[in-house]
Amino acid sequence: MRGFVLNTVRVRDEDLIVRILTSKEVLTLYRFYGARHSYINVGYHIDFIVEETPKATIKRLRNVTQLPYDFMFDLQKMLDFKSFVTLLNNHLRDVSKIDGFYYNLLKEISEKISKRDSKRLLVESYVKLLEKEGRLHKENTCFLCDTEIEGKAALARAFLPAHEKCIMSEGFEREKLDLLFNEKKTLLFDDFEINRLWKIINLGF
Ligand SMILES: [Zn+2]
Predict the structure, then answer these.
(1) How many angstroms is it from 153 CA to the middle of ligand 1?
(2) 162 close to 205: Cβ distance less than 8 angstroms
(3) Which terminus of the chain has a lower count of CB atoms within 10 Å, N or C?
(4) What is the pLDDT of residues 5-59, one digit of tens each?
(5) What residue ranges define each of the domains in the chain, with the CATH number in brackets?
């Protein structure tokens, strides 16, 4: 079975509880002697076996092999990817069965990130996630005062559009947002704006 490590929690010195996203479910598994085995880190793509444990309430994680990335030694890309995975983990906190979209999204990111600016790719991926969940607000209406936004639109958490004055935040030009929301492309934004979008994402999915 294959999956992405969403989270790890160390227990009893050497063991780990590992949360893994597969294409069908989010698994919580127990790894004995985690400290003595190969290192398992958030964001890693792994191949593994789930061992049924009749008496225990939590199944065991066995035979873990890390599937290597071509960006493993690019520290900034790894950090950005891990941040995205951690945000996704919080977002999927109460989920067990899951649509294949999320696994495929992480797979797509991990395959493209070495050739792309990581934050641009993650901003575009986040917009895909919002659209998949029916939470992408393309309309030009402020979520706070419910009136039309003329000129620049500011974005709140989850990229909710608002007037700059309503959320006291600098806006983005409409045509740039339209290209991002409709085509999932960040190419009209400068790097400063990409950092602002990335900070909004980090408020939480
Ligand atoms: Zn408003």
Answers:
(1) 10
(2) no
(3) N
(4) 999 999 887 899 999 999 999 999 999 876 666 678 999 999 999 998 888 789 9
(5) 2-67 (2.40.50.140), 75-201 (1.20.1440)
What separation in Å is there between the alpha carbon of 81 and the centre of ligand 1? 33
Q: How many residues does the chain have?
A: 205
DSSP helix/strand/coil, 79:
helix
Cα 144 to ligand 1 centroid, rounded to whole Å: 5
CA of 143 to the centre of ligand 1 (A): 7
Total Cβ atoms within 10 A of residue 129:
19
* Cα 196 to Cα 153: distance, rounded to the nearest angstrom: 13
Structure tokens that stand for 72 in this block: 């493993």
Separation between Cα atoms, residue 62 and residue 184, nearest integer Å:
38
pTM of the model: 0.94
- Ligand 1 centroid to Cα of residue 185, in Å, is 26
The residue behind tokens 């789930």 is: 50
Residue type, 149: I
Give me ligand 1 centre to Cα 162, in Å: 5
Å from CA of 146 to ligand 1 middle: 6
What is the dihedral sign for C-alpha 58, 64, 17, 105? Answer: negative
